[in-house]
Specification:
Elements: E1 5-8, E2 14-18, E3 23-28, E4 31-34, H1 37-45, H2 52-63, H3 67-83, E5 88-91
Antiparallel strand pairs: 1-5, 2-3, 3-4
Helix pairs in contact: 2-3
Length: 92
Amino acid sequence: MTPTAIPALPRGVRLHHDKVRRAEVLLGPETALMLDQIGAVILNEVDGTRTVAAIASDLARRFGAPEGQVVADVAEFLQDLADKRLVDASDG
């Protein structure tokens, strides 16, 4: 996924807090994906209006991490979800 892509959760996919497991889960059609803390933080920033670069920049600032590395990691994570049809992306 490119830094200029605008990620969004497609229809039928949503974030859910599993109270039993005390974890965030990405729910999709016939799919439940347990998220680690980093994945949950990234997906909480996906709003369908901001680019991958904007999301990564905010996260890099918030966590004091190198922006270039965060952009690469966020893009890779979101691309993996896009390959599983759990995230859509449009060109920004």
